[in-house]
């Protein structure tokens, strides 16, 4: 067998072997990636469903607090306001927010009043819900009830319900306790629909059989059969005692990779055909002494390299092909090499300068576009057009002074710009209202950070900044919204912006308003430290203002 045939055979085996290995590798990678993606998506969606359910518990606790810490409710329990239920327990409002029942107990655990707010087709009653709550611990739950009350999940047969128990006290939480308020919320189909709205699976609830210990159950179970086109999973939800309550089960279609795999196989078949053609073409070139001509060119180049200072020249073959062109090009290159070396540095400097200008211009245009979007409020909100960029710049500069990383500074700036974008979802009448908000209006208003977060997460560029827009309304003492976080559990970037925004609101120009002095602004900021703002960040911000000479 000739050298040409051996070379062609060896080259063909190598190319086809590489293609076969790549085909197997990519196919396995595609399958594993799809399985991993399915599992991660199911785990993420189950976790999000569990977090949302726990969020419903906190929401119910906040709703119960609005009625429990009320002077009117306290007076009613004292027999001073007998018309309280008819006036203040609005069935339409409570039914709309999902409340099933309200039960008022006196200090002797006797039912003073109860009302059913559930849907007409709901067979659950306040009596049955009260029995379910007291089934495990009885009246002991009241004797050990914390000052802030308790809330959680309890199973009523096969049906989970949310409940919250609060002490009935005055609005300032002073005076003695006048009894207890129990508020329940059914785990309704409407709630299930809301929880699964942003998830990728079909949601269902499965009660855990009685007597099964939570220690005997895994927290999360994912089941993926390679032969099945669906992936299933479930996550365990605990009741208020820490016991196993029910499973949140989900089923979702797997990622369909059949079409992608078919196209991948077609691609590798095409590449195999190309490899065969390449091997044949290589044999033709080899037959015409391609190797000898390349070796001759190599020897001449080596001779030129070793004979520095003498004339440099490559012999050009009398053939009109690529190798002859390379030979001529090498001659031209060597003749032009010295001149090109002198011009290279200058050309590099010009190129770098042009790229830098394009990058800087692009950054400015991108930031200007984001600022225009963030400040494009509807009529009546024009006051934020200049205030938002000012607060965002202050927050970014303050974060930089604190040593925050460069990439995080961009997220702080964009998060601050879009901190109030969720207000666009509020009714115009609510946004423009100057009088104090009612409880229902305040509840609706407190949702706007959630809308801000949803908007940010829907945009890939803004997604890393969504936590700032979601959490900057949280107070240091836990009295903020929407989650009621406190202290260091509030994201650091959100706390930074909260301080900068408070300063911006105190010092920004306003028609007919006197701008406070630096000392007055510092005094007002310190007044908010420990309640609204992080005390340490307030002091650092005041030092930052002095150093930067800002008013």
Q: How does this structure look, described?
A:
This protein is an alpha+beta fold and 551 residues long. It has 19 helices and nine strands. It has helices at 3-68, 71-77, 84-88, 91-96, 126-134, 140-143, 189-195, 258-287, 290-306, 322-374, 384-401, 406-417, 428-431, 439-445, 448-457, 466-471, 492-507, 518-528, 535-548, and strands at residues 99-105, 111-116, 150-156, 159-167, 180-186, 202-207, 220-224, 230-238, 244-253. A five-stranded antiparallel beta sheet has the order 2-1-5-4-3. A four-stranded antiparallel beta sheet has the order 6-9-8-7, covered by helices on one side. 25% of the residues are buried. The mean pLDDT is 82.
Please write out the topology:
Elements: H1 3-68, H2 71-77, H3 84-88, H4 91-96, E1 99-105, E2 111-116, H5 126-134, H6 140-143, E3 150-156, E4 159-167, E5 180-186, H7 189-195, E6 202-207, E7 220-224, E8 230-238, E9 244-253, H8 258-287, H9 290-306, H10 322-374, H11 384-401, H12 406-417, H13 428-431, H14 439-445, H15 448-457, H16 466-471, H17 492-507, H18 518-528, H19 535-548
Antiparallel strand pairs: 1-2, 1-5, 3-4, 4-5, 6-9, 7-8, 8-9
Helix pairs in contact: 1-8, 11-12, 11-17, 17-18, 18-19
């Amino acid at each position: 067998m000739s050298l040409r045939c051996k070379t062609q055979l060896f080259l063909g085996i190598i190319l086809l072997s590489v293609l076969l290995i790549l085909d197997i590798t990519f196919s396995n990678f595609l399958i594993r990636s799809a399985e991993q993606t399915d599992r991660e998506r199911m785990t993420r969606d189950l976790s999000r469903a569990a977090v949302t359910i726990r969020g419903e518990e906190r929401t119910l606790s906040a709703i119960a607090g609005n009625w429990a810490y009320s002077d009117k409710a306290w007076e009613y329990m004292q027999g001073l306001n007998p018309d309280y239920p008819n006036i203040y327990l609005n069935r339409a409002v409570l039914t709309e927010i999902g409340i099933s029942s309200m039960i008022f107990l006196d200090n002797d655990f006797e039912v003073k009043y109860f009302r059913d707010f559930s849907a007409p087709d709901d067979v659950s009653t306040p009596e049955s819900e009260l029995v379910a709550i007291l089934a495990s611990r009885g009246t002991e739950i009241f004797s050990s009830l914390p000052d802030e009350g308790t809330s959680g999940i309890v199973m009523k047969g096969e049906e989970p319900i949310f409940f919250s128990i609060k002490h009935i006290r005055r609005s300032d939480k002073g005076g003695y306790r006048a009894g207890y308020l129990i508020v329940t919320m059914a785990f309704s189909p409407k709630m299930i629909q809301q929880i699964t709205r942003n998830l990728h699976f079909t949601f269902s609830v499965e009660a855990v059989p009685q007597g099964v210990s939570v220690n005997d159950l895994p927290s999360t179970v994912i089941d993926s059969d390679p032969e099945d086109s669906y992936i299933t999973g479930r996550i365990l939800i605990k009741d208020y005692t820490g016991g196993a309550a029910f499973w949140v089960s989900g089923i979702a279609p797997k990622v369909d990779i059949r079409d992608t795999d078919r196209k991948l196989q077609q691609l590798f078949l095409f590449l195999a055909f190309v490899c065969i053609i390449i091997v044949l073409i290589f044999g033709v070139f080899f037959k015409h002494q391609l190797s000898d001509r390349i070796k001759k060119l190599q020897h001449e180049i080596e001779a030129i390299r070793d004979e520095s200072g003498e004339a440099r020249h490559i012999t050009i073959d009398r053939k009109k092909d690529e190798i002859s062109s390379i030979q001529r090009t090498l001659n031209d290159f060597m003749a032009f090499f010295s001149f090109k070396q002198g011009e290279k540095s200058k050309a590099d400097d010009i190129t770098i300068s042009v790229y830098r200008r394009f990058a800087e211009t692009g950054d400015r245009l991108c930031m200007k576009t984001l600022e225009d979007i963030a400040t494009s409020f509807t009529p009546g909100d024009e006051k934020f057009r200049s205030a938002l960029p000012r607060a965002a710049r202050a927050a970014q500069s303050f974060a930089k002074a604190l040593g925050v990383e460069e990439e995080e500074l961009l997220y702080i700036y964009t998060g601050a710009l879009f901190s109030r974008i969720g207000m666009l979802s509020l009714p115009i009448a609510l946004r423009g209202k100057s009088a104090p908000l009612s409880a229902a209006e305040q509840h609706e208003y407190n949702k706007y950070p959630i809308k801000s977060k949803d908007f940010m997460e829907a945009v890939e560029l803004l997604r890393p900044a969504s936590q700032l827009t979601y959490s900057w309304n949280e107070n240091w003492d836990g009295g903020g919204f929407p989650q009621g976080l406190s202290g260091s559990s509030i994201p650091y970037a959100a706390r930074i912006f909260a301080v900068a925004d408070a300063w911006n609101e105190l010092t920004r120009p306003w028609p007919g308003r006197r701008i406070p002095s630096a000392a007055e602004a510092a005094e007002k900021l310190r007044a908010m430290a420990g309640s609204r703002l992080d005390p340490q960040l307030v002091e650092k911000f005041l030092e930052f203002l002095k150093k930067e000479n800002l008013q």
